[in-house]
Structure formats: C-alpha cells, structure tokens
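Q: What structure does this chain adopt?
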Amino acid sequence: MNTGFYSAFAGFSARMDALELIANNLANTSTTGFKSQKEFYRSFLASLSGTPSATPPVTIAQAVDQTIHEFGVLGGSHLDLSQGTLETTGNDTDFALQGPGFFAVLTKNGVRYTRNGSFHLDSNRRLVTEQGDPVLSQQPGGKNQPIQLPSGKISVSSDGSVSVDGGLVGKLRVEDFPSSANLTAEGASYIVAPQNAVAAPAAGEVREGMVESSNSDPIRGTVALIDLQRTAQIMEKTLSVLHNEFNKTAAQDLPRV
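A:
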C-alpha cells in the first residue's frame, strides 16, 4: 500500500509542476516571440539510475515489481521552437525571422537570444530590445558589437543587412544552434544557450516591418490545463483514500500484533 501512496504522490506532484508550465504558456499567448515549454515525464527508477528505462523484466514477479515502482515523475521541460505566425506592423525597426535562428542581444548577464524582433532606437540611436538591451551586429570572431544607426530611412534585407538611406551600416547577428543544444528560457522572450554550444549563422530570413507572434496555442493550452487539473484531482483523491487506509491500519490492525 505504501508503494501505491508514493506512486500517487509522485503523480500528483508531477502534475502540479506541469500545471505551472502550462499556466505560463497560457499567460504568454500574446507575448511577441514567446516559445512555449513542453513537459516530459520519466519513471522514478530511471530517474535514479540516469537511464531512460529500467531493465526489461524476466519473470512475472519482476514485472509486477517494476510496474509498481516505476511511477512517473516530471523529467523536465523543453522549448517548443516551432515557428509562430508573422504579423505585419509596418515599423522600420520591427523584424521577424522566417525559419530557424535567433537575434543575438547583449544583456547584463551576457549574450542572450530572442525571436522577439520588436526593436526600437534608444537615445544614442542604438537598436535595442523592448528591455533596452542592445541588438548585436555580425562581427569577425563573434565580437559583441551593438548596432548603431545614423539618421535616415532604415531598411533591412532578407539576409539581415541593415542600410540607412541606401548605405550599408551593418548586419544583424542571427545565429542558430544544433538540435542537441539544451536551450533554456530566461524570462518571457530571452533564450540562454549552454556554454559549450557552438553557434552558427542561421538559415532563416529576416522580414522587416513584421514580428513573430507567440507559438503558444491558447485552445490546446486550455484543454491541456483542464486535463492536468482532472488528473491531479484523481491523484489527490487517491492520496486521501490511501491515507485513510493507513490510519485504519494503525488504529485497528497494529494493536492486535
């Protein structure tokens, strides 16, 4: 019975953590460039051993033991990097990426990456993000050089080249990472790459006067939220039943021993 209690508790705890992920996705359905997070689960024994699954059972007893002990826990989450819808704004300093890649920006915590191309010019005519962080230009050796623009009509080509009144002044630093890179979210629109990840020029095309909407689907998110809530309620009910059984055993059976 104790195994059932632990299984129910692990399932309940995992669903509560997953609820936070889905709630965050729903809260950012209108956040420009937001990438939703997807939860994944793994068995308790596998999480302890560091392997994706336990050794296949040989006997019926082993199968039963594996079934009751390998209850699911939240393994973590991963970013859904699928393309969001491109929306036209008409602003000269709004950019969107069609295809893979991220804009590189310089924050107080170092270089970060984003799909939120809702940029503007600061008082020094540097191209900055909504948070005021400088947007980086492509430089030899990966030097962190912000883009600073003179007065004039701004235009950007599909490869990220930035021109003012027809004169080339720089190129947006747009980079991508291999699928094996463990990219993580920081805030609503920034993405952090691990230190050992090797960035490379992205194949995506820049679209001027457009931004990319969030890829969080409010309908799917709402359905997933309801499903998780119901599952969590079932787990909670199971915990209550098992707890009552424990109390019954302690009150009635143990004194007889």
